[in-house]
Write a structure and sequence with these properties.
166 residues, alpha+beta, Alpha-Beta Plaits, five-stranded antiparallel beta sheet, 9 strands
């Protein structure tokens, strides 16, 4: 099984995301990651969806999505040809003894400390799945209090774009 990234342009209207997610649920497809937001045209939103599966599953998902009336365009993004990022906020336990160690790990990963208290640090990190997972693995021994992660968002590298045909 492989990880596939789909970029989907949809009408920016109430209920569209619910219909897209409902399609996955009805068909028994699992969404690994989901990110959605308006494009430069506020009437259109971009949904980035990550799924694990094979070529057949990907083809089924694309066909089913294309049947939805609010879906404008679908593109499967190749991992070697995209820039993909997610965001994680993580609250880590610290003591006066471990605070500098956690701060050093934060610096190595080019993360930002966005909140500090006597017993915790809230750290913000953006990156691909590998970077985010490696960071979480490094700070896990210190004690993770909370994690909030976004879905992955992706754009194609270079001049390739997903936009409306005009």
């Amino acid at each position: 099984m492989e990880r596939y990234t789909l970029s989907v342009l949809v009408e920016n209207r109430a209920g569209v995301l619910s219909r897209v997610v409902g399609l996955f649920s009805r068909r028994g497809f699992n969404i690994e990651s989901l990110s959605v937001g308006p494009t430069q045209d506020t009437k259109i939103s971009r949904i980035t969806i990550e799924v694990f599966g094979d070529e057949l599953l990907l083809e089924q998902i694309s066909k089913q999505l294309s049947k939805l009336i609010d879906v404008i365009k679908i593109k499967t993004l190749r991992s070697a040809e995209i820039v993909k990022r997610g965001l994680v906020l993580v609250k880590v336990k610290v003591t006066p003894k471990t605070r500098s160690e956690v701060m050093e790990i934060t610096n190595v990963f080019r993360a930002n400390i966005v909140d500090i208290s006597t017993s915790t640090l809230v750290i913000e990190l953006t990156g691909g799945n590998g970077k985010l997972n490696a960071f979480l693995e490094m700070i896990e021994p210190y004690g993770i209090e909370e994690i909030a992660k976004t879905g992955m968002t992706a754009l194609e590298r270079g001049t390739n774009t997903l936009k409306l045909d005009k």
